[in-house]
Amino acid sequence: MADAKKDGKSREELTQEVKIDVHDMPPLEGIMSIRAAMQNTFAAPASIEEFMLKGLTTDEADAVRDVVGHENMLTPPPTTPWWILFIEHQTGFFSLLLWAASILCFVSYGLDNSGVDNLYLGIVLAVVVFLTGVFSYYQEASSAAVMAGFKNMIPPQVSAIRDGTKMVIDAKSLVPGDVVLCLTGEKMPADVRICDFTNFKCDQSSLTGEPDAIKKMAQNKDESGKPMEATNLAFFGTMVAEGEAKGFVILTGDDTVMGHIAALATGTEADDTPIAKEIHHFIILISALAIILGVTFFIVSLTIYDVVKSLVFGIGIIVANVPEGLLATVTVSLTLTAKRLAVKKVLVKQLESVETLGSTTCICSDKTGTLTQNRMTVQHVYVNDTIYEVPAVEAAWSTTLPKGIVPSVVEQRGGAVETPNDLRTLHPDAAFEKLYKFGVLCNKGFFTADDKEKECLLRLCSGGNASDYAFLKMAETIPAMCDRRRAVNEAEFAIDLLRKEHPQNSGPEGDIPFNSKYKFMTAVCEMEGEDVVIMKGAAEQVFQRCSHIEVNGEIKPIDAAMRKRFDEVYNTVAKMGERCLGFGYKKIGAAPEGGWKGGNPEEANYPLGNECISKYQANPEGWEATDDALIYLGLMALIDPPREAVPSSVLMAQRAGVKVVMVTGDHPVTAAAIAKTVNIVKSKVPADFVDDGKTPEEAAAIARAIVCKGTDLDNMTEVEIQHVMLYDQVVFARTSPTQKLLIVAAAQKMGHIVAVTGDGVNDSPALSQADIGCAMGIAGTEVTKEAADMILLTDDFSAIVLGIEEGRLIFDNLKKSIAYTLSSNIPEISPFIMFIIVRMPLSLTTVLILCVDLGTDMIPAISLAYEKPESDIMLRPPRDAEKDRLVTDKLICFAYLQIGVFQALAGFFTFFCVLNDYGWDIRAVPGQVLNFEAFPESESGKKISDDCPCGAGQKKTGNSFVTDKFAPIKHGMLDTTTGQYKKLSASNVAACPASDLGLVIDGDQMDENWPYGYACPYGAVKPNKKCKFGDAAGNGAVGSWATACYKPALALRKAQTSAFVSIVIVQWADLIICKTRLLSLADQGMQNQVMLFGLCSETILCMALCYLPFMNTAFSTAPIHPVHWFPSMPYSICIFLYDETRKYFLRSERKRLGGQSIGFVEKYTYY
Prior knowledge:
Elements: H1 11-14, H2 27-37, H3 48-54, H4 58-68, H5 82-90, H6 93-111, H7 117-143, E1 157-162, E2 165-170, E3 179-183, E4 191-203, H8 205-208, E5 214-216, E6 233-234, E7 239-251, H9 257-266, H10 274-301, H11 307-321, H12 326-343, E8 346-348, H13 353-358, E9 362-365, H14 367-371, E10 377-383, E11 386-389, E12 400-405, E13 418-422, H15 423-426, H16 430-441, E14 446-447, E15 461-462, H17 466-477, H18 479-487, H19 494-501, E16 520-527, E17 530-538, H20 539-544, E18 546-551, E19 554-557, H21 560-574, E20 579-589, H22 610-618, E21 630-639, H23 646-655, E22 659-663, H24 668-677, H25 686-691, H26 696-702, E23 705-709, H27 710-713, H28 718-725, E24 729-733, H29 737-749, E25 754-758, H30 764-769, E26 772-776, H31 782-787, E27 790-792, H32 798-823, H33 825-837, H34 846-856, H35 858-863, H36 889-917, E28 950-951, E29 954-955, E30 969-970, E31 973-974, H37 979-983, H38 986-991, E32 999-1001, E33 1004-1007, H39 1048-1073, H40 1081-1084, H41 1089-1107, H42 1109-1115, H43 1129-1153, H44 1160-1165
Parallel strand pairs: 9-22, 9-25, 18-21, 22-24, 23-24, 25-26, 26-27
Antiparallel strand pairs: 1-2, 1-3, 3-7, 4-5, 4-6, 4-7, 8-27, 10-11, 10-21, 12-13, 14-15, 16-17, 17-20, 18-19, 20-21, 28-29, 30-31, 32-33
Helix pairs in contact: 5-7, 6-7, 6-11, 7-12, 10-11, 11-33, 11-34, 12-32, 16-17, 18-19, 23-32, 28-29, 32-36, 33-36, 34-39, 36-39, 36-43, 39-41, 39-43, 41-42
């Protein structure tokens, strides 16, 4: 869980709402309250008017700033210096282990510098660890560049009143009590109490999720008592959408509402990501195993070798157990996935967060701008007693939509009836034409002049509100309107041409602007030679001002049946979460002398249906037509529509076992409707069951879906929030930023891996608290992007589902890569085990182990990161972090005790085959750990005499000696009693000294009966069978392969090289079987081009190590006979057949059991 870290504040303190009460006070009382809080550092004003004219003095502002203790700016998030990050990448647990191994190698070389193997090994280990750390640091540094979000939240300068003078000052110098002026297009520089205003509106969507700009004024019209709902407060960082205002600052910097939210976002320190925990778990497990085995082998080998030699063996065990290339493989896997997501317009700030998304069990998604387009759109129109779904592009008006809802006035059809929508007959219809024209004419919005070339939906609008812009964009796409524009070569917008055709005859003073009190606006325009008053407003309010309705060209009276039908239509549209705006009109003839006057309904000199609505409200059932009543034309229903791919993406997430929860600041009805549209809610909520006659308790018990309001959350404990989260389908509406944070924390305590999406500042604390935060790249604020781990550059929720699949693919592929990598540990460790148990020479050297781990295995292991997902990847439930670990006992069993055993057998079989071919069968090898070395060492570690003048009774010439002419040595002399001696020529006998032919250690004869003194330079193991390639003199030799015949040291190098080759060959099969955990290779295919390259690259590298002379020298390898590539191939085939059979039974069990239980094969072998 996250912990509060901001300025020493506790989590409880941070999650409390900002306490503001100035909005509930008269302005003068409010400024006096601030004065008291600022320790009376500025003079008390006589009146608010005087204060607004003079403001603070410069000295007073400085004094207030001293009291506040900070400037008007948000504290930036803490960052870690680059050099600390670099050191962290160099000092991970694996890295420390390998650094220690490297240092021990150097120590060993310092103690005994007669050979350079230890020096080379130490250098290689150091270089590997360093480069791996550099690579990891580079990837993180380039992917997680710090986003300077907070400094962009404040405008650089602001207009303020200081010393009685209007001046422009730095916004950071503002203090509580300063008088500021705010204009259209500016960001609010602080939290401000409005005192004077002119048509002032603020866009608070980043704070509250509300799509429309909020009208602000000097009086607080809100009765909830919540500062966020107050109409006389404007908040730091929000945008002035319209008008201008003057007010005094109440809070600055970190004390503002925005600063409080920022503190929540930056005051949380997230846990390690799931993949980080898994890798840490794996590192501890493998490191512990490596250290235990290394120390054990070191102690045991002390009984055979000296300290230096024993130390080298201990290092060898550690190196064999530690998959040196794994961390690089993990980093590459995460980077590759991050790049794949970047192509899909998803920016990953932290590499490990990619896999976290794959582990996600719960997505808490904001609605506005995330699930929806954050763009009000006309979704339906009601005209001619029919509800039509309308398109958003011109081409769609020439089609027939599959479904339309057609309520009937006369016939009782049991509700809405679905019939085709023939848009080809709708758009030329006279009533519809009048409706969309009214939508343009009674509208303050307009397109900006620079947007003529843009697609209509992407054009910027000014002057109106979100609803006005929706009407304009719908009208602009209607074919008749498009024809208007084309007629003037698209030099003007169609809406502007329409307004010229039907000019307003009322003038600016004749209009009635929208007001929340009467909920409508009007315009008077010339149409068909006379003036017409057009009313647009809340559908039910406009309807109550009308006595007639226009249906198919006829003006029909509104009777009880029509009122009932209107209620049905209104409820049908409202339940879809759409905002209904109705349209009425009345022909009013020519303007009177002085023109039409508006302003407000009481002062207007044209009919507005005031008398009509009064009678309706007095007697809804029996009201009659009045002279001032209007004609109802229809309504337009608007919605912030869901993104096109969201519904299917939500279903895909749910099929993958991921719970999708909507957490929004919007109205519960709207939130529920959108949730149903996007498949978050598919069942009845408790309120629906209550409507059906159930008690609230019964409804809560049987409902699978719930809509929980923020007012309910205020009184809930964390346990009660968790109870809400137990519902299958959950929507939280009207939530505050702190409530969103508590929801996420409650879900995490339930064991969920939580992903949070959002775009507003109100989302940033929850984004920071979440296991992975996903911010919107277009609509997202800078604070939100700073708090997030990933940024969806296209604001597309469906990218999250793609991310889940990619994250699961990472986990799958890392499992496969680890299984592939670990399986070679057994053939790498087993030679050391045999070395201890039967005292046979190592079949694989430490350097060759490194060649496997860092050479031949590296690219194939990385290639698994490119493997495509298996078919069931999005049908599985999210992994259980407690059970489905990255490395499980089943994976260890698979890698070590199944595939690893095959590989170890292949390695030993190849090793013994090669020695057998060069003169030593398997019986000659055990116990000869020392004697395979050139000039073998004694038990004390001292060299046996380098002087070995006699070979087979013949003085050694170069490296040649005669193998079929030798005489046993007895008591340091040639044994003259044997038959072999009698076969020697006189020259042979004369070439050898008469005595001291046995091997001597420091002047002491180790064994005066040592029989094979001629073998000193190549080891002293007696060959016990004929070499298959000839003899050491070249007699009967097959090519140059005979050079190792009867020469233990040379034969050993060839056998070790062949054992190395055998690992590569069995790893071919291991790589192929690790492509899938369930599917057959026939189903998955071999389309992974990187894997094919990996197979080729490891084979080429293997050949280079075998046959290039400088490689032979550097890595102590030797060229091997072509036939020695084949002994391990049957094992490779067995590995492939074994795993295909295992997967076949695994699939068969799943099919047979149908998911009801787990079969034996899956229980014990599915890793």
